[in-house]
Amino acid sequence: MNKKLDAIQVIGLGQACVDYLGRLNAFPREDGKAELTDLHIQCGGPASTALVTLSRLGISTAFLGSISDDPFGVKILNNLKREKIDVSCLKSTPGYTSQFAFIAITREGEKRTIFWHRGTVPHLVKRDVDISQFTKARILHTDGLMVKASIEAARQAKSLGMTVVMDAGTMREGSKELSKLVNILIASETFATPLVGRDAPHDIALHALRDLGPEQVVITLGARGSIGLNNQGIVRQKAFPISAVDTTGAGDVYHGGYIYGLLQGWDMHECMRFASATAALKCAEIGAQSGIPNLKDIKALLRAGLSYLKR
Predict the structure, then answer these.
(1) pLDDT tens-place string over residues 99-116
(2) Please, which contacts does 262-270 make with residues 24 or more away whose CB atoms are closer than 8 Å?
(3) Pairing state between β 226-230 and 309-310
(4) pLDDT band at residue 270 using 50, 70 and 90 as cut-offs
(5) Angle at 211 between CA 207 and CA 212, to 5 degrees
(6) Cystine design at 206: which of 114, 137, 229, 237 (Cβ 3.0–4.6 Å)?
(7) What domains can you pick out in the chain, each with its CATH number?
(8) How far is CA 75 from CA 2, 16, 124, in A?
């Protein structure tokens, strides 16, 4: 028995990338130019940032993803190791490029525009996935980009008695099939648009997403908080007031915070409140991961902050 793998509580499958984050006073028109006031380079990616959040909160995690041996891939690998995330199942294929993004941040963090390239490295496929070695893992978290690998991982996780959590950013081919295997779906505001239309009320969107199969559904609303649905009804959580420098990665950090709550045995409103506080504190710094808070700071904000609203 591998004691290190036996200690893993959360497995993440999905994206890891290198982010170039540039601040500017105003976004230029097409064919124009604008001077960057500063430039930051750090790692991001939905699944990996959620795992970094958990790792900093003391949770043992492992990451399944695909990188190459290019400078971006080397930086991603070193970052995961530095954050104490197990990378024994991270696939590295030489001779390709790894994922990266350029993010333009304007108006003191209120607006961001993301340009990203998924790289040329092959995605994980079904045969790349084997989570049976993580014998005591309780949660599988996937961002759904590598949908075939995610479906296979979710099937394995269900057979092993794990809870499956999905970061649902964009509805893609295979997303509905994956959602059927998910216990908890945490979605962007636009994920349900193909199901209910662009202007449908959040209540309608929640029920449509829950009809796909998940037991719990949460929609994140940025500065307007989040809204969730489970067997007890709808829960609304206000965003914690904070002077935002950059919202990049806030949703990914929210997912990590929510999963932390699940591991503590909290109910939906407690998970949403903790996740909201964690994401808010992240926004005080530039980048997806540099501002991820520690448990002490999160608890301090919770003591001073807002309560949830339940209908």
Answers:
(1) 999 999 997 656 889 999
(2) 262/139, 262/163, 262/165, 262/184, 263/9, 263/10, 263/59, 263/138, 263/139, 268/216, 268/218, 268/228, 268/230, 268/232, 268/235, 269/228, 269/235, 269/237, 269/308, 269/310
(3) unpaired
(4) very high
(5) 125
(6) 229
(7) 3-15+46-91+125-310 (3.40.1190.20)
(8) 27, 10, 19
Query: Facing residues of 116 across strands?
Result: 101
Least confident of 65-74, 108-117, 121-130: 108-117
How far is it, in rounded angstroms, from Cα 227 to Cα 304?
21
Tokens of 94: 């030489």
Candidates 69, 71, 64; CA nearest to 48 is 64
pLDDT, position 306: 54
pLDDT in tens, 39-69: 999 999 999 999 999 999 999 999 999 999 9
- Asked if residues 176 and 212 have their Cβ atoms less than 8 Å apart, the reply is yes
pTM over cut 0.90: yes
Specify the DSSP element, H or E, that contains 18: strand 17-24
The answer to whether the beta carbons of residues 20 and 100 sit under 8 Å apart is yes
Angle at alpha carbon of residue 257, lines to 251 and 259, rounded to 5°: 105
Q: Give dist(CA 264, CA 186) in Å, integer.
A: 18
Residue 311 has pLDDT above 50, yes or no: no
Write the single-letter amino acid at 20: Y
In tens, the pLDDT along 247-260 reads 999 999 999 999 99
Q: Measured in whole angstroms, how far is the alpha carbon of residue 158 from the centre of its chain?
A: 20
